[in-house]
Amino acid sequence: MTDDRDVLRDVWFGRIPTCFTLSQDEITEREAEPYYLLLPRVSYLMLVTDKAKKHFQKVMRQEDVGEMWFEYEGLPLKWHYPIGLLFDLHASNTALPWNIIVHFKNFPETELLHCLTKDAVEAHFMSCIKEADALKHKSQVINEMQKKDHKQLWMGLQNDKFDQFWAINRKLMEYPTDEGGFRYVPFRIYQPLNERPFIQKLFRPISGDGQPHNLGDLLKEMFPAAVTPEDMEKQYQVVIHGIEPMLETPLQWLSEHLSYPDNFLHISIIPLPRD
Q1: Which of 46-50, 79-83, 255-259, 270-274 is predicted with the least confidence, judged by mean pLDDT?
Q2: Which residues, in sequence order, are bridge partners of residue 22?
Q3: Strand-strand pairing, 69-72 and 187-190
Q4: Which has the closest alpha carbon to 15: 82, 84, 94?
Q5: Measuring CA to CA, which residue among 243, 215, 235 is closest to residue 87?
Q6: Is the pLDDT of residue 2 over 70?
Q7: 190-216 as b/e, with b when 16 or more CB fall inside 10 Å?
Q8: 3-state class (DSSP) for residue 236
Q9: Within 10 A of 135 (CB to CB), how many other CB atoms are there?
Q10: Which of 96, 131, 183, 251 is most buried, taking the most CB atoms under 10 A from its CB?
Q11: Please, which residues have CB within 8 angstroms of residue 198's CB and are 6 or more apart in sequence?
């Protein structure tokens, strides 16, 4: 039987082999070689791409370097989504390495938020953690923590330190035994290329009669097409952290073990290719 801590470690240390290539629109003084990185699924692009940025800036004139942004197959990548979610949503059925194009000009103002410093990532991350705790514990846990605890969560993520992060985050995953779970499960359901950013509603991990809700129960209510009746052909893949969990998996367990560091369960609904 896999130990719960092993699951948390496996999730934390998930990596995506990625090839960064400079956009052909950029003016360079010499050819820019591609840059390869193993991207941590649980992190954010702007936290882990400093080396790629330096690599490409070396071949450019300083006056040609604007705000860096990333694109995959013509789609600007939202830096405020975790890396694993971006991959699952847009590239889960493609061969590795993941090929990302790097830009330093023509920032897509209507499609991306600006991120000029890592402070923007920290502010977004902490606001998600606070929102998740409001759903789980009426904000009681996060509000009882000290500023240094908040900082430790952030530094644990930024520096890729599993033990540093989970020493604090485990408090956010606790609940009274008699309640059987959180008040509500912090989740977001995404579809590629959908106008609506995501589906997020209140959903309890335990039913009114005390039975644990599972992933299938959540999907039946939020996205029924993702649950395939036995006599029908499957239309969608339901992906969390690059895997397709069984629909019978209890939602409370998923929330405790497969949430991203922002404490949300990010669920991608991927249409299966039609023959």
Answers
A1: 270-274
A2: 102
A3: unpaired
A4: 84
A5: 243
A6: no
A7: bbeeeeeebbeeebbbbeeeeeebbbb
A8: strand
A9: 20
A10: 251
A11: 188, 189, 190
Q: Is 23 helix (H, G, I), strand (E, B) or coil?
A: coil
Query: How many Å apart are CA 35 and CA 99, to the nearest integer?
Result: 10
Backbone conformation region of residue 241, classed left if phi is above 0, alpha if psi is from -120 to 50, else beta: left
**Angle between helix 118-137 and helix 162-172 axes, rounded to 10 deg:** 30
| Amino acid type, 6 | D
Residue 222: CB atoms within 10 A of its CB come to: 16
Average pLDDT, the chain: 93
Distances (CA, A) of 37 to 19, 52, 100, 144: 7, 8, 11, 38
Q: Is the pTM of this model over 0.85?
A: yes
Q: d(Cα 74, Cα 41) in Å, to the nearest integer? A: 21
Helices and strands counted in the chain (H then E): 10, 8
Interval 15-63: pLDDT, tens: 999 999 999 988 777 888 999 999 999 999 999 999 999 999 998 888 8
pLDDT for residue 5:
79
Give the separation between CA 204 and CA 223, rounded to whole angstroms.
16
The Cα 13–Cα 157 span in angstroms is: 11
Q: Return the bridge partners of 250, or none.
A: 214
For 254, the token pair is 């998923």
Q: Of 215, 217, 230, whose CA–CA distance to 268 is shortest?
A: 215
**How sure is the predictor about 185, in pLDDT bands with cuts at 50, 70 and 90?**
very high
Which parts of 90-198 are beta strand (E)?
98-103, 187-190
pLDDT tens for each residue of 227-266: 988 888 899 999 999 999 999 999 999 999 999 999 999 9
CB atoms within 10 A of CB 72: 18
Strand pairing report for 35-40 and 15-22: antiparallel
